[in-house]
Amino acid sequence: MTRDWVDWHEGYDVAESSLARRLVVVRRYLSEALAAAPPPVRLLSICAGDGRDVLPVLASYPAGREVHAVLVELTPELADRARAAAADLDLPAVEVRTADAGATATYAALEPADILLACGVFGNVTHEDMCRTVAALPALTTPGATVIWTRGRRPDADPSQEVRAQFRAEGFTELAFTAPGDARFRVGMSRRPPNGGTALPSEPRLFTFR
Ligand SMILES: C[S@@+](CC[C@H](N)C(=O)[O-])C[C@H]1O[C@@H](n2cnc3c(N)ncnc32)[C@H](O)[C@@H]1O
Questions:
Q1: Does ligand 1 have an atom closer than 6 angstroms to the CB of 44?
Q2: Does the C-beta of 209 come closer than 6 Å to ligand 1?
Q3: Considering the domain boundaries, does residue 57 fall inside one?
């Protein structure tokens, strides 16, 4: 990891920044996914940061305290912040793991999730790692699960189209996609196919941040 991810989170505090606007969309998609998911609900957020996209939504959702959420975050300071936020919001079923979300072994003992967030991940990994990770998502989720993901656009290209194509290739159904013309963020929400591989890939890593 070469970036200062604590510093990166300060982008959220800039009003109307692409990141601040992205957060609004991710939270809205998560609210919709929670409303559509029959309890009991399991949620997994990979590279979860400080959990600000998940935790306030759970706190405002009627059954949010019952959602078993696992947030996997490698930077200890951010994981600590997420733990503190979950405690402040009285969310006892939230577990924050300070762990490597790119390592396949991290998921070995995890129950499949009904809702999975991969926000701020695909822009930091190679195309091959993005494809491998999307292909592995059926092993991390229940049939019909909802996956919420993000990908930034560059001035010269919009790699979110590659992510959408990869989800389609893996049999996911796109439920929603937001791509404002005046901002670089893109957010997608896709439904996992009812069938699909449930075995974790044999490779030791799904992705590595560049
Ligand atoms: C772009 S930020 C996104 C944070 C959060 N998902 C969000 O959208 O606000 C990427 C996060 O991934 C974390 N990270 C980087 N490599 C990781 C890894 N191998 N496993 C888990 N987290 C990782 C960073 O510490 C950082 O918090």
A1: no
A2: yes
A3: yes
Domain that holds residue 26: 5-191
Q: How far is the CA of 146 from the centre of ligand 1 (A)?
A: 20
Per the omega criterion (within 30 degrees of 0), is the bond before 143 cis?
Answer: no
Q: What is the pTM of this model?
A: 0.98
Q: Is 153 contained in some domain?
A: yes
For ligand 1, whether the C-beta of 53 sits within 6 Å is yes
> Rounded to whole angstroms, how far apart are CA atoms 4 and 78?
11
Residue 172: CB atoms within 10 Å? 23
Q: Mind listing the pLDDT tens digit for each residue in 157-202? A: 999 999 999 999 999 999 999 999 999 999 999 999 998 777 898 9
The CATH code of the domain that includes 26 is 3.40.50.150
pLDDT at 198: 78
Which whole number is the average pLDDT over 106-116?
A: 96
117 lies in some domain: yes
Whether 153 and 139 have beta carbons less than 8 Å apart is answered as: no
Asked if residue 210 belongs to a domain, the reply is no
Can you say how many angstroms the Cα of residue 126 is from the centroid of all Cα atoms in its chain? 17
Which of 22, 47, 100, 208 to mutate for ligand 1's pocket (most ligand atoms within 8 Å of CB)?
47
